[in-house]
Amino acid sequence: MTDPLTDWYRGRRVLVTGHTGFKGSWLVAWLREAGAEVTGFALAPEADRPALFRDAGLHHGIHSVIGDIRDARLIATTCQAAAPEIVFHLAAQSLVLRSYREPVATFTTNVMGTAHVLEAVRSTPSVRAVVVVTSDKCYENDGSGTPLDEHAPMGGHDPYSASKGCTELLATAWRRAFLAEQGVALATARAGNVFGGGDWAPDRLFPDLLGAAGRGETSTVRHPSAVRPWQYVLEPLQGYLLLARALTETGMDAAEGWNFGPAAEDALPVREIAAQLQQSWPAVTVAATNAPPPSPHEAATLVLDATKARERLGWRPVFTLREALAATTAFYRESLRCPDAIDTLLHDALSDYLTHLNTQTSAVAEHRSSP
Fold first, then answer.
1. Which residues have CB under 8 Å from 317's CB, separation 6+?
2. In a domain, 338, yes or no
């Protein structure tokens, strides 16, 4: 038995941009499990590294279009042909360090690419709800550790973060100027540092540590004292799905910005996450460094306040951080041991999460109905 949220998507037409990426792949897997009619639009996975979308065969059962959101004509024709009811916009240049090397490409992809997607939505009468996924880094972060709610100002020290702040402003402008009057409800979603099986992007903590463990190598980490809101990949995706459902059912009431972040106690320094990964997989080894090499600026502390999503959408994490770390470590270990079984690993991990989600949903409903 699936949970009510997953059941709600059965038979619905959905467009996912960025479907070949890490979060996009997990979202496609969830929607495919739900029985949704999915069209994906994204760049092809990078050929020189593993990719969850390719390795798990996620192109089966969906319509996958390989393209660049900077190509306004192609995204428009794709959206019109798919005639989706719901659009999840995840396509982006999502790496902070790459944004220092490729700042202009980061802005053209994240900002103008989003404009192209929203223009495609304007020309597609079937669309009722749009979720634009940005980042917790869209905020002007003073590094104080004070949890940032949705009213915090936009900002960004580096090109990636600033591009996400700009994307938030752009989405608000399109909602107010164009989409609201067409009856299209648009919201933005800001999540924390997401981890989970199948992420092989460069310069990310989990792929670096767990990939090195699989090769029998020692890792070093950037900014071991940096505090981040760590989340299992399916937790914010649950939030995106809840948000799109609310947009479809209630319209403009939910058309605003939303944070999806973990409990405050799960905002931990990098060194603590590395230590917990070592407990799950002793092959994980991290070299102690007293003077790490200089690297571009990254905020020392970043914590989100997700009270609004918990109270208004009923969103809440399903796994504890320890459970999520164990599930992630197991996925990496098994995928490195048996690369041909990644589709099974993905299916089993998703099924386990949905079982826990259904149990949680039932318990909440029972609690609310009790006198």
1. 231, 232, 235, 262, 263
2. yes
Cα–Cα distance measured from residue 212 to residue 332, given in angstroms and rounded to the nearest whole number:
11
Across the range 329-352, mean pLDDT stands at: 96
Assigned domain for 370 exists: no
Output the pLDDT for position 296.
67
Which residues on neighbouring strands pair with residue 229, listed in sequence order?
A: 267
In a domain, 309, yes or no: yes
End-to-end CA, the chain: 27
Parent domain of 277: 4-358
| Mean pLDDT of all residues in 100-108 | 98
Q: Residue 92 — φ and ψ, nearest 5°? A: -170, 160
Question: pLDDT (tens digit, 9 = 90+) per residue, 167-226?
Answer: 999 999 999 999 999 999 999 999 988 999 999 998 889 999 999 999 999 988 878 888
Task: Put the strands of the sheet holding 227-232 in their side by side order.
Answer: 193-195, 227-232, 267-269
What amino acid occupies position 348?
A: D
- Expressed in percent and rounded to 5, the helix, strand and coil fractions of the chain are 50, 15, 35
- Output 160-164 pairs: Cβ under 8 A, ≥24 positions apart: 160/93, 160/94, 160/95, 160/96, 160/98, 160/99, 160/106, 160/110, 160/135, 161/96, 161/135, 161/137, 163/93, 163/99, 163/106, 163/107, 163/109, 163/110, 163/111, 164/110, 164/134, 164/135, 164/137, 164/138
Band of the pLDDT at 312, cuts 50, 70, 90? very high
Q: What is the CATH number of the domain that holds 104?
A: 3.40.50.720
In a domain, 366, yes or no: no
Q: How far apart are CA 107 and CA 365, in angstroms?
A: 44
pTM value is: 0.95
Give the pLDDT confidence of 120-178 residue by residue, as tens digits. 999 999 999 999 999 999 999 887 878 999 999 999 889 999 999 999 999 999 999 99
